[in-house]
Amino acid sequence: MAKGGGNRSRLLLVLLLVSSLFLITLDLRGVNVASTIRGGVATALSPVENLFSKIFSPFGRFTTDLRNLGQSNSKIADLTSEINKLKAKDIVDQDMIGQLNQLKNVLDLAGRGGYKVVAARVINRGSAATFKQTITIDVGSKNGVSKNMTVISDSGLVGVVRSVTNNSAIVLLMSDPTFKIGVRIAGTQSIGVISGQGGNSYLLQLLDATGEIKVGDALVARGSSGGRPFVPGVPVGIVTTVQSNASSITQNADVVGISDLGSIGVVAVVISPPNDDPRDSLVPKPKPTVTVYVTPTPTPTPSK
Amino acid sequence: MSQLRVLNTSIFLFFVFIIQETVIARIHFPFNGFSLYIAALMVLLSLEDRAGSLVFGFIGGLVMDLSTSATTPFGQWALAMTFIGYIFSVNRESLGDFIDRPLLFVLFVCASSAISMVIFLLIGVLLGQENGPFLRNILLILANTFWTFLIIPIFLPVIIRIRKMLLTNRERV
After folding, report:
1. Is residue A270 part of a domain?
2. Which of A9, A14, A19, A20 has the most B C-beta neighbours within 10 Å, making it the best mutation to test the interface with B?
3. What is the ipTM, given to two decimal places?
4. How many CB atoms lie within 10 A of CB B12?
5. B15 touching A (Cβ < 8 Å)
6. Residues B118-152: tens digit of each pLDDT
7. pTM over the 0.80 mark
């Protein structure tokens, strides 16, 4: 009896393994069954994601906030007084105002670059089990969004559209370790490739052997043919450390991303590239510093 | 195992999948990671008999393959979870009854969640996928194990109770 049960289990195991391998083969050979099913699920889930996005928006960064708790008593005291001031000013919806500001800045950046964009709200983040760093946005093919379009935030590059459904799209973030983009050092013709490292730091490999990298150099996207997947001129990051290694053929540098991918709420999808390359016009200008001169007043000497 | 049972459990797994994709994925866990879905599936598989752990491993994996953020081939999670179901079906009886030993149950769920993610990555490597730096993936798996260890004791009684409700009258006896 047990032997019969064991044989049945073995047969079942073989059947399920063959089914799994069959599905994988179908997908790898480009049969559209899998993408259609995933697209259907995404279309069905996006209204639910929208709903939860509205409900959980103020609580989304709960764990991050919890980690920072107790770091500095004085900071907490300052923040408490600030909260009281904010309450006094009767600011009802900070979250909404923040999103409006982000939207304004995104549209401002797109306008300066000459990009035709569709604004979108981030409605979800990719599950940890997928090993990919992605976000879901609330615009899809009905808004003119399609695969391999550049996604920007109010400060620069966010990622690229990976897949699209009718009313949502999945964006592969530039922090994903499989993400690579060709960049140019602003103000020069030196070109290189930036790779995601999983966090907000990136690795720059300069392709130009004679080029020079300096700390503080701004990097902009070189752009792809036809503006897809990358439109030219979008700020990508700032060089923080130059790795000097005499034995290396290419020069490497550590780069910090220009967009804070952990806190983006509003983005824009570039649906049409600019007619002319905006070159370095989108690179953030350094803020002017104010110098204050103080002349010490002479101390009065006692008269004899 | 009746067809009704398979249908009920599949609906339950899909419900947990929706919670994972719409609520849990939204929370910024440090080191990026807790999968309630994998943990719930491991709890279910560990309570099943041989055929049950194979069938629900496969179905659970198929549901995971529906993830909208997944860029892996459709069926990769199904293959990984079928392997896990097989491992459960072979070794499950030697570990005894989990219901009376909750700590061992939680540790078992944590370990099996980690192993399922490792198997998923290994299949990806065999298929020629680029999965990013090795250390980062290890950190992700460890973080998921850590959060599973902390959070799953809260959900464990609920999942066990729901599973009891999903059993048919004959299976309850």
Report:
1. yes
2. A20
3. 0.81
4. 18
5. no
6. 999 999 999 888 877 888 888 889 999 999 999 99
7. no
